Amino acid sequence: MKRALPALVLSAAALIPVWLYTPGIATSSEPPPTPAEALPAPIPSSTSSTPPASSPTTAPSTTQVIAGSTVPTEKGEVQVEVTLTAGRITAVRALKAPPHPQTTSAMPKLVESTLEAQSADIDAVTGATITSDGYKESLQAALDQKSA
After folding, report:
1. d(CA 26, CA 29)
2. Global pTM?
3. What pLDDT digit, counting tens, does each position of 132-146 carry?
4. What backbone torsions phi and psi does residue 84 show, to the nearest 5 degrees?
């Protein structure tokens, strides 16, 4: 019985830091990066299946840059910009994104999935489900605006 009380007190004291831990909070004295600084540049598509326009009879390819709608999420606003060349998604860039480490690491994965799928029908990134859902909604809004 004499050992039970100290063991209980020390166990509770050891668990307090675990209960108080909140992931995603920066511990440095530097301010967190703005969403534009935290996100990588758009990733161009390297798996394009369209042939190069080398013959003079080929019509010139048209490029459209379309911004999707701003989607409010629990973590912050999400908005993407899509670059379409000859009807294919060639780049996606985040205009607005929550300043969270999960978002920063999820964006390149979402962009890569978009370029592979050539649509907004992509899987969410584990750990960034809220941001992924906002990304897909803004992406679909941009794709809905593309001209025929």
Report:
1. 8
2. 0.59
3. 999 999 999 999 988
4. -110, 130
